[in-house]
Amino acid sequence: MNELKDTPSAEFQTAQEAIAWIVGRMEKLGIKPGLQRMQLLMEKLGHPERRLKFIHVAGTNGKGSTCAYLSSVLQACGYDVGTFTSPYLEKYTNRMQVNGADIEDEVLLRLVNEMKPIVDEIAETELGAPSMFEISTALAIMFFGKVAYPDYVVWETGLGGRLDSTNIVNPVVTVITNVGHDHMDILGDTLDLVAAEKAGIIKAGVPVITAVGPEQGWHVIEETAKAKKATLYSLGHQFNYANVSSKLDHQSFDFSGPFRRIEGVPISLNGEHQLTNAAVAVMTLEVLRQYYACIVDDEDLFKGLQGTRWPGRLEMISNEPRILLDGAHNPEGAASLAAALQSVYSYRKLHLMMGMLSTKNHTGYLRHILPLVDTLILTEPDFHKKGDASKLAELARDLLREMDRTVEIVVEHDWKQALEVLTSRTEQDDLAVVSGTLYLISDVRSWITYQTDSEKGW
């Protein structure tokens, strides 16, 4: 069960100290794409990643929901499932779980104390100091490969794919949900370039499942899969779904794939985009059944899909007043949110509070949202890359003039004050929505649920 070294002269005395050391690196070192530091880390840790079966999931939107579907179904089938996701919504330990339970503080502390001298050693080389995300990725691999030994690890990329630290693993199956306008300052300024970064997780001979469409750079995914001799299962080609019914908190669809047809597949998450995410998850599970003899009975498949919850995505966090949280923060996410607001929810007036990071495509986001809202409350996440609420307001006013539309705009830089404005405006038949960066969603969710501030980190 345990291969951890004794660390009598431990660097950190508590899990909180260890976590503070990890997340403190974000502001100091930022994001450092590349795999050389990860390769060295894994080598010095004895390659724990080689003992695990990873399901590697990339994509601009939908990867978190797809991971949630996969984890829920595999657990329902009786498998032990590790998950690594980012960013977390409440606590740092949320990002590495087994069967839905966070890594324990004492285990985290022992693992970080084991890793710390190796991190310091690498920092002295020409490769430089490992980043926050690299250490978090290595910590998750140590936890799964040295302590928990789950049957499968659902493994979400952080950013892009090709140079993302999660790409250190050789998975049993690869998933690319979609490609959209996000992180283009890092991944490239065209969808083809972004698609090429996502396609970087495709490995030789490892099957690939994707819902990437032709206008999102599908040909890039197809060419990469062909070059790597990786069988491609693509939505609209090898598999499809048909919407059977969509009601609040209950949708169903018929799935057809190369191996079989499944009728009346149920999910509880809302929005048309969740049918796509669920269909991608079902195709992934079908590949696991065919290639790796993974046992997935229909009863467990339905139970797992219907039981999937994904906090912060079309999540009704309060009923009096009605407050919906949704982490849409790019144009494609805003399009999905707008579609759901028009088809799933009813309201007299719509009041939307949003806060963004400075690096995002705010124009594309606002074009989808502004036609629907009665009040727009602009605020700022409590995060070092926060977008200026006043600049967002200027942009929104310009776009509204173009649309010949009048919307009341409120600028409140303090998000807690903004939340008070939002709740005070929302009457019985109205709907309040908090949207934008997950750093804001995380804070609002913790505040409404527990009246406490969330931890913060990638």
TrEMBL record:
<dbReference type="Pfam" id="PF08245">
    <property type="entry name" value="Mur_ligase_M"/>
</dbReference>
<keyword id="KW-0067">ATP-binding</keyword>
<dbReference type="InterPro" id="IPR036615">
    <property type="entry name" value="Mur_ligase_C_dom_sf"/>
</dbReference>
<keyword id="KW-0436">Ligase</keyword>
<feature type="domain" description="Mur ligase C-terminal">
    <location>
        <begin position="312"/>
        <end position="437"/>
    </location>
</feature>
<dbReference type="InterPro" id="IPR004101">
    <property type="entry name" value="Mur_ligase_C"/>
</dbReference>
<keyword id="KW-0460">Magnesium</keyword>
<dbReference type="InterPro" id="IPR013221">
    <property type="entry name" value="Mur_ligase_cen"/>
</dbReference>
<protein>
    <recommendedName>
        <fullName>tetrahydrofolate synthase</fullName>
        <ecNumber>6.3.2.17</ecNumber>
    </recommendedName>
</protein>
<feature type="domain" description="Mur ligase central">
    <location>
        <begin position="57"/>
        <end position="284"/>
    </location>
</feature>
<comment type="similarity">
    <text>Belongs to the folylpolyglutamate synthase family.</text>
</comment>
<keyword id="KW-0479">Metal-binding</keyword>
<dbReference type="InterPro" id="IPR001645">
    <property type="entry name" value="Folylpolyglutamate_synth"/>
</dbReference>
<dbReference type="InterPro" id="IPR018109">
    <property type="entry name" value="Folylpolyglutamate_synth_CS"/>
</dbReference>
<dbReference type="Pfam" id="PF02875">
    <property type="entry name" value="Mur_ligase_C"/>
</dbReference>
<keyword id="KW-0547">Nucleotide-binding</keyword>
<dbReference type="InterPro" id="IPR036565">
    <property type="entry name" value="Mur-like_cat_sf"/>
</dbReference>
